[in-house]
Amino acid sequence: MANPSYLALGTRIISGIDKLLSTVIASSPYRWSSGIVRRAGLTGRTLVIAVPWIWLLLFFLIPFVIVLKISFAETRWLGSPPYTPLLEWVSGQYLQIKLSVGNYLFLLSDSLYAKAFLSSVKVAAVSTIICLLIGYPMAYAIARAESKWRNTLLLLIILPFWTSFLLRVYAWMGLLSNRGVINQVLMALGFEPIVMLQTDFAMYIGIVYSYLPFMILPLYSNLEKHDLTLLEAAVDLGSRPFKAFLSITLPLSKPGVIAGSMLVFIPAVGEFVIPRLLGGTDSLMIGRVLWDEYFLNRNWPVASAVAIALLLVLVIPIMIFQRYQAQEAAGAMKS
Amino acid sequence: MNQNRSMFLLSSLVLGFAFLYIPILSMIVFSFNESKLVTVWGGFSVKWYGELLGNRQMLDAAWLSVRIAAVTATGAVVIGTMAGLALARFGQFRSRTVFSGMVTAPLVMPEVITGLSLLLLFVAFAPLPFVPDSRGFSTITIAHMTLTLSYVTVIVQSRLSTMDDSLEEAALDLGARPAKVFMLITLPIIAPAMVSGWLLAFTLSLDDLVIASFTAGPSTNTLPMMIFSTVRRGITPEINALATIMVAIVTLFVVIAGITMSRQEKRRQREMRAVAIGT
User: Fold this and answer.
1) Nearest CA of chain B to the CA of A27: how many Å?
2) Which of A99, A222, B132, B182 lies 20 to 30 angstroms, CA to CA, from A114?
3) B206 and A48: CB-CB below 8 Å?
4) Residue B261: how many CB atoms within 10 A of its CB?
5) A chain contacts of residue B9, beta-carbon cutoff 8 Å
6) Among A16-25, A57-66, A313-322, B134-143, which is the least confidently predicted range?
7) β-strands A94-97, A87-90 pairing
8) Domain B63-234: assigned CATH number
């Protein structure tokens, strides 16, 4: 049982709240106003849905509409905001709509953007595969470890995730730089130092390192639920353990593989910090292009067009991820 | 065969953990390095911690980030719990698909998109009344709340969906008001999820560089923004010291939380056994 004094305190607090609630509910202003509220169709239930709904509408959906709008505007170099309005009252007579596809044509005409998109998708895909190759055995080992070890091992996976992402990327700068730890070791062993920082190699290491926990956690929660009697039955019937793994465990873990891969792939495509700190100056990642377009070139319409194009590239992976999330929630509710 | 398999699994764990922890350990070791050259060992020293504590700008930035993170986490827990409750307990309601889509999308949305879109929103709405006309604390907090409330929602929702709702239904059947059922039954069940949601939101907010850079005004500097502008000029021992302090605080929290949870788990198991035996 919980500590009795805490329990007594808890009961007291709750009965206090309850008394307060009853007093408020019995009071005439409450009854009067709740009558109006109820007639307007507002119940507690509606309110619980409405508050997050309105928040997300305001700060998630509408911002995208604005990005879409500005991506069709023209850049105005002087003036604030630095883009032309889409709707304009022309001499107070009629509303003029000016849609310019110039920014998108610009993205298509300058091969820099196409290259950046392609290389971002490539880097993210390769990193996802490496994460899967490292993460699957780890998740499998943790899920099949003795139960007394499982929580500790899981904690060790989560722990780096709680420490600053930026500082963990920075840590690799110290390891990979020309006079860094790895090169010191190499030189002490009599090898030539290798240029690693500001190369694609460093960028891959940074992405795999930062996103590995996102691969392991969904994989683990999937592998942990497997019914091991199936595997035992297969082995009893003469299947080799590896064959049993390929024909039973691997297909069963498909939802975990998909969830983990999407959690790595989608944010990695738009990654900015890792290419900026670890990648070379010529590394073309779309997140970096968008950042520079906004912060260096101050070209808001082109930055918006890049954001919309990036969203179009990611819309299918995001939908796959969401379908998985919905299935997972439905499955948890059923069991 | 079996031996080979467990050797393979064990070595993948050992190598994986080495990969995860060696960078962090090297950062900690070099924070105690006397030499300014970060990667050449020049003797043990704590002088970089002294320099860090004397760095006024860095301390101001850290304080701002902590305040933003605390407000963000509290707001995200309130709204995220509502959303989690709606998704786990309200069954089908109109707009549920759109709603759950909007809740989970920020989890994977690249930060540059979220950052840019929120900035453009703040700029577009700046002329309206009740909107802060200078970007800083409030705009960063709103942006961070939008990002982190998704995490809280997912945590609360998954906690609720693993819990049986028969207690809540029984209370409702016996005539308790929904608000009272929430206070007496649902809230105690989801309290641990709300605490971990708060901590996660706090950490994510404290750590965010990209969204804060977009939504901050020119005179606002959060801790990650300070770290980033220092770090991109190269490696400095002061940042190593800062990293060590942050790792120490986080480890302390996570270990304490881990021990408390495993104790509770053990106690629950003891109670279950006691009930089963019939004492």
Assistant:
1) 16
2) A99
3) no
4) 14
5) 137, 140-141, 144
6) A16-25
7) antiparallel
8) 1.10.3720.10
User: So what's the pLDDT on residue A2?
Assistant: 47
Tokens of A209: 């390192």
The letter for the amino acid at A323 is R
CATH number of the domain that residue A206 is part of:
1.10.3720.10
CA dihedral A59, A64, A66, A68 (to 10 degrees): 180
Please indicate, yes or no, if residue A101 is contained in any of the structural domains.
Answer: no
Let me know: does B171 contact B184? Beta carbons within 8 Å: yes
Its domain, for residue A137, covers 110-334
Task: Spell out the domain ranges in chain B.
Answer: 21-54+242-279, 63-234
Q: Give the residue from B15, B20, B152 with the most A CB atoms within 10 Å of its CB, the best one to mutate.
A: B20
Mutate to test the interface with B, among A17, A43, A325 (most CBs of B within 10 A): A325
Q: Is residue A132, in this structure, part of any structural domain at all?
A: yes
Segment B111-119 shows an average pLDDT of 93
Residue that is written with structure tokens 């008001």 in the block = B177
CB A219 within 8 A of CB A136: yes
How many domains, chain A? 1
Contacts of B262 in chain A (CB under 8 A): 151
In a domain, A72, yes or no: no
Length of chain A: 335
